[in-house]
Amino acid sequence: MHLVIDGYNLIRRSPVFRAAEAEDLEMGRQVLIEYLEIYRCLKRRLEAKQIKITVVFDGERSFHLSTQKERVKGINVVYSGLGEKADDVIKRMVQRDPNLVVVTSDREIVNFAERCQAVSIEAEEFLAKLEMAYYMDLKGAEEEEYAERHIAPSKKGPSFRLSKRKKKKQRILKKL
User: Fold this and answer.
1) Which of 23, 33, 104, 174 qualifies as a FRET site for 155, CA 20 to 30 Å off?
2) What ranges do the domains of the chain cover?
């Protein structure tokens, strides 16, 4: 699975990341990357799942003419080039590979991803998973505890059918 995250969109949805960003823009990015590293390592350790994570940040006011890429703590970090927004970079990535999972609350990107048959997840949904991973890392969670938290609830209420898109999104959310 490959997650593509709209970096500043996610930072501005979390009180923890927002507070770090208020001190220094670079610090906000670093805290987000630390949380993502913990999440990635926890998934690999407890579920034996390899997750590739790419975070895209706006670099439109930077002095770099083209897109800048680096790898920090196992996370791919991309800065858009001069005059380009992170949204444009994410859209290009989705066009190249519609099997990506896009994490953002930006309606324009969500609609674009759906048109390209890619799955998008709201930033708030993913933040809950990041916070849980951080908490479990602090407390030293074991496999049994993690498995207990992710047991699917029994079905209740009237039955109904979900659309193919919603079924696909639910499958992806279960994997996260």
Assistant:
1) 104
2) 2-175
